[in-house]
Amino acid sequence: MLGLLYLVFIVIGGLLLWLPVSHHGDIGLSEALFTSTSAVTVTGLVLADTGAAFTGFGQAVIALLIQFGGLGLMTFAVLVLSALGIPVGMPQRLILREDLNQTSISNLTVLVRVIIVVALVCEGVGALLLAFVFVPEYGLNGIWQAIFHSVSAFNNAGFALHPDSLSQWVGNPLINIVITLLFIMGGIGFIVVGDIYQARRWRQLTLHSKLMLVGTAFLIVWGCVWFALLEWTNPATLGNLSVGDKLWASWFQGVTPRTAGFNTIDTAGMHDSTTVMTMTLMLVGGGSTSTAGGIKVTTFAVLLLATVAFFRRQTTLHAFGRALGVEEVLKVLALTMISMLLVLSGIFVTAISHDGQFLDLAFEVTSAFGTVGLSRGATGELDGVGRALIMVIMFIGRVGPLALGFFLATRTVPRVKYPPGQVYLG
Amino acid sequence: MLGLLYLVFIVIGGLLLWLPVSHHGDIGLSEALFTSTSAVTVTGLVLADTGAAFTGFGQAVIALLIQFGGLGLMTFAVLVLSALGIPVGMPQRLILREDLNQTSISNLTVLVRVIIVVALVCEGVGALLLAFVFVPEYGLNGIWQAIFHSVSAFNNAGFALHPDSLSQWVGNPLINIVITLLFIMGGIGFIVVGDIYQARRWRQLTLHSKLMLVGTAFLIVWGCVWFALLEWTNPATLGNLSVGDKLWASWFQGVTPRTAGFNTIDTAGMHDSTTVMTMTLMLVGGGSTSTAGGIKVTTFAVLLLATVAFFRRQTTLHAFGRALGVEEVLKVLALTMISMLLVLSGIFVTAISHDGQFLDLAFEVTSAFGTVGLSRGATGELDGVGRALIMVIMFIGRVGPLALGFFLATRTVPRVKYPPGQVYLG
Ligand SMILES: [K+]
Ligand SMILES: [K+]
Asked: Where in the cell is it found (chains A, B) (predicted)?
């Protein structure tokens, strides 16, 4: 059901982008559908330079598709129906639950309001700040650029209006701070944002928020430090930059793999080691109920906690004074297994049908599955079959975890003994 | 403790192979230690052509290292002590337990006897049959070749006396049947062999044996069919062979990744897709208490069963009318996580320090970790650092699971409710 809605949106978006009014060059139906899929699934893999190939109208369509895809189609459905005075009955609410990975129906309208408010405020403030960079450079068009990049960043879409993404601003502090803050906020999950807003104190935060905040902080430090260490002298990436720019670029490139998809450095220029590290970050992804993809930070955290607990001969998992039941571990195991099998199958099928550099193909498949959008250039070189494959993987990468998350959230297992903390795993 | 014993053995073996009497060409201490590590860990990765570089004495040393490494040093220690009339006390028995991944001490002497008898009978019969191939071709030297390859095959060592492994006999039925049967028997685990010998009927087999037999059969069919499908027209592998040879080669190449390490086809000639499939098989490996490596077939089976059970909303795993407790799933999760982290770290570090083809390096690391010994040629090109890395990974790949298996086997968790079936996961 949810998948069908996304599909309808992709087709409508593709048809709109196919219209002559949307593009300059030769964008066929296949390219239009690919772009639409990439936008609705907030991935950001592209076949053409978004800024050059699409007109202002086309870019607006893409921004809308990103907004709809990122915030969840259902949030908008509820809003529209409410605005029209039509009571939002159970069926729609159930779909909404599936989309946002929520179990309790009563919180839903509150949650929707939180989502919309947070999103619009963030995107508005972001656009305002970005205008200080874009307007002096591009004049009136700079306003549109600020809005587009703000929407794209908050929704972790990774679409940019320049062929080398944001590489022009590799050392620009405003871009490096505003864009990353936008996609970190968007990727950490509405639950966490709402929780911080309500609780305000660390101790009052839920287990989920604590895990997300600590996990995100750890992964950011991990990614940035490794990127700097591995690429510091690589002439294709950091080598020729000033020390200040090197630090800014390491910050940006360490944060973007989960799952923003912008880049300020040539992704194809990275060493193989950095590429592998980036792929692992892309697989982990962001937070549940967020605009990010991947197996999610909490899933990864539970995997690690379970392993550590095991080697300490503990039968339960503890984190921040809360116990996590065995059923959480089973969820995590199933989710991770399915994800790994999907990514492996994707890499396998792509490798069968295409003879490019293996690592580049594997990177592209991982990027599509995690709806990241970073590219080492393989996507642009794929034939029809390859494009179709990447489209399917992006679709599964976005809709799969949502559907799976719904399944996980509604699974009823008798809980025993411990005061249970709840973690969102989809 | 166990690791130290293996280490001592590796050093002694390395020194013996370093002696001028052991080799013809310029085998330095570094090459000798690498070969010794590869033999004791029954991996089979080599820097030089074993048949050309080492004398008969050197080859005999290698065969002995393989035999000691494969059957477990401790089996031999017990034997020697018993033969000398020295009572085998608890400490030694405990080490033996660690080596064979067994929980019950009382079965140990029985098990050791089973192991020795099974190994010698299999290797003897194997050598006899292989002599029909090697003696007509090589005369008296053929007898030694038959013995060496039989020992190497049963212990899943993958050492061959010809630079292209067994490629000369790609279509030879005797080689294709005897060698594979030897390494399948050696790799399925002594427990299963002993169980089949005692039970003789399917219904009386333990859950572990049933899982191993069904899992092994499935993985063999999977590997062979995919290899044939993917490589059928590849001129670098199957393309130029007759249909009969193609089928034999597919059989051999489908079975050898878990974790025999012989090849009848040029491993470097395989497509990327086949390479990825082979790598997954190498990671799965063979059976517990066997000469094989990897995360083990039962671990993989429990991973799949847990995922299936989860999607059926079952809280327990069932297989062949037996329930598997949650603690088994936790074991499996911890073991798989550790293994994946190790392989990923190995690939990461190798990629940092070496700039070869990524897939070839990743293949080599996976092969070393699974103590498989298949190679796409990267091992021969590595510098000192790379060789040291591969040696460490082989060592961890062999000793790690044994130590971990001991840890897993001795872990006491209160079992509840279901009649528990036991599965060996190390
Ligand atoms: K993205
Ligand atoms: K081997």
From this structure: Cell membrane
User: Token pair of A413, please?
Assistant: 């297992």
pLDDT in tens, A22-45: 888 778 888 889 999 999 988 989
CA distance A247 to chain B (A): 20
CA nearest neighbour of A279 among A301, A265, A295: A295
Length of chain A, in residues: 426
Which residues, 6 or more positions from B265, have their beta carbon under 8 angstroms from its beta carbon? B167, B170, B231, B237, B238, B249, B252, B253
Q: What pLDDT is stored for residue A417 in this prediction?
A: 40
| Nearest-5° Cα angle at A98, A96 to A104 | 75
Q: What is the mean pLDDT of residues B72-80?
A: 60
Number of CB atoms found within 10 A of residue A392's CB: 14
Q: Are B405 and B279 in contact (CB under 8 A)?
A: no
Beta bridge partners, B23, equal B54
- Asked whether the beta carbons of residue B330 and residue A327 sit closer than 8 angstroms, the reply is no
Q: What is the CA radius of gyration of chain B?
A: 21
Nearest to B298 by CA among B414, B367, B213: B213
Using a CB–CB cut-off of 8 Å, the residues of A that contact B are: 230, 271-273, 275-277, 280, 303-304, 306-307, 310-311, 313, 315, 326-327, 329-331, 333-334, 337-338, 344, 347-349, 351-352, 355, 357-359, 361, 407, 411, 413-414
Composition of chain B by helix, strand, coil, percent to 5: 70, 0, 30
Q: Is it the case that residue A289 has pLDDT exceeding 60?
A: yes
A415 band by pLDDT with thresholds 50, 70 and 90:
very low
CA of B46, nearest ligand number: 2
Burial class (CB in 10 A: 0-12, 13-18, 19+), B269: middle
Q: Which amino acid is at B131?
A: A
Q: How many angstroms separate the alpha carbon of residue B156 from the centre of ligand 2?
A: 5
Structure tokens at A302: 């539970």
Beta bridge partners of A318: A323
Q: Are B33 and B363 in contact (CB under 8 A)?
A: no
- Chain B closest-CA separation from residue A114 CA (Å): 32
3-state secondary structure of A261: coil
Model confidence pLDDT, tens digit, residues B37-49: 999 988 989 888 8
Average pLDDT over residues A327-346: 84
DSSP-derived secondary structure letter, A201: S
Question: Residue A39 is encoded by which pair of tokens?
Answer: 């936008």
User: Residue B262's closest CA among B184, B334, B197, B195?
Assistant: B184
Q: For testing the chain A interface, which of B273, B313, B361 should be mutated: the one with the most A CBs within 10 Å?
A: B273
Measured between alpha carbons, how far is B116 from B121 in angstroms, rounded to an integer? 8
Which pLDDT does position B422 carry in this prediction?
A: 46
What is the C-alpha radius of gyration for chain A, rounded to an integer number of angstroms? Answer: 21
pLDDT at site A107: 56
CA-based nearest residue in chain A for residue B227: A352
Q: Report the alpha-carbon distance of residue B135 to residue B47 in Å, rounded.
A: 27
Is the separation of the CB atoms in A261 and A44 below 8 Å?
A: yes
Q: Which two tokens stand for residue A37?
A: 């899929």
CA atoms within 13 A on the CB side of A54: 30
Determine the distance in angstroms separating the CA of B25 from the nearest CA of chain A, rounded to an integer.
35
| Angle at alpha carbon of residue B157, lines to B153 and B159, rounded to 5° | 85
pLDDT of residue B127: 93
3-state secondary structure of B8: helix
Residues 6+ apart with CB under 8 A from A345: none
Query: Hey, what are B247's tokens?
Result: 């089928």
Q: If you measure CA to CA, which chain B residue comes closest to A344?
A: B276
State how far the Cα of B140 lies from the Cα of B131, in Å rounded to an integer: 10
Q: Could A272 and B310 be called an inter-chain contact, meaning their C-beta atoms sit closer than 8 Å? A: no
- Is the distance from CB of B350 to CB of B358 less than 8 angstroms? no
